[in-house]
Design a protein that fits this description.
transferase; metal-binding; Molybdopterin biosynthesis moeA protein, domain 3; MoeA-like; MoaB/Mog-like_dom_sf; magnesium
Amino acid sequence: MLTYAEALATLLKEAHPLETERVGLSSSLGRILAAYVSSPLSLPSFDNAAMDGFAIRAGAGDIPSGTAFTIAGMQAAGDGTTAYPGADACEIATGARVPDGFDTVVPVERCERMGDIVRLTQAEPRGQNIRRAGGDIATGAPALTAGRRIDAAAIMLLAALGIGDVPVARRPRVVIINTGSELHDSGPLPEGGIHDSNGPFLEAMLASWGVDLLARHRVPDTGDAFAHAVREAMHAGVDLIITTGAVSAGRFDFVPSALAALGARECFHKVAIRPGKPILAARFDGGPLVLGLPGNPIAVAVGHRFFLTPVLRAMAGLAPEKPLRVRLAEGHDVRPGLQHFALGRVEADAEGRQVARVQRNQAAYRIVPFTQANTWLTADGSFGEVVDAWPLDPAAAT
């Protein structure tokens, strides 16, 4: 049986970066930049006033209190005037271009105006209250790096630079197939029935990754509905098929044999992990990658977080994720010989230091501890004094 590290390495060999496309800024939120973006202009693009007041041609040294200047005009934000030849002062608004040769802006509240004359009420340092051209970013400087998830801050910068579209990694096309004759939508249940939670969970997590989810199927454990859903996904040209359930060793665990009959090449089946040991990966030559997750909800969550997430990162051209190393507040016994994934909480102790605690009463079928956790904790063989902590929502942390 493969270790987690071996299985992940095998899986990532099958996950290739997707091609690049360009999208408009209004459609770029959440997308992954596929290439470095350099600044096409400087920000600010010109020297401008940091506040309302008077722009002064101060010359050398500070300006003494009581110095008076003749006001040549008014410089408002958006005005195209670049110079007042022969003048030593002009009224100026916040954000307005500082005219050529003017080197200081004095706030209006530290001035006395009498008609066209302005007098300083205190000594003023030369060069103050001017936002210099390029003070934020210079022309040609790196604006955003490849692999950056475009968030609101990135959109603010791109818009300020006048960039209307950006190169991003294509969204992976995905189909989810949940197996189980016992699965039903919300509402009254028949005898022996349960509500499908895996499908909505995966759909929600994939939405935060911004994937192109083409379909989510729920199929019974008998008949050819599974094969039909797989063929339909392949015909649609998907990159990834995610299945849940029917990957273990029972009578109704048909997914491995069904995929083989459809022509899929098995990459691995069963990994030395807990929960999620029966996980399966397969590849259709020239077609999609298949990740078969067990049916228990927390095994699905582990499969998403520690197998599917690395695949999506690889498809987006992102580097491997690195965990946070955190001190464990108290010991936690686990079965030796397995890679363990546990829900936990990272909190501040009495001294304000970050410590991790493992959630109590965990099991592959128990969902409530998942809702109370704020991190995943991982350990190979045993939970020692220091553990790896991973965000619950990897897309939000990218």
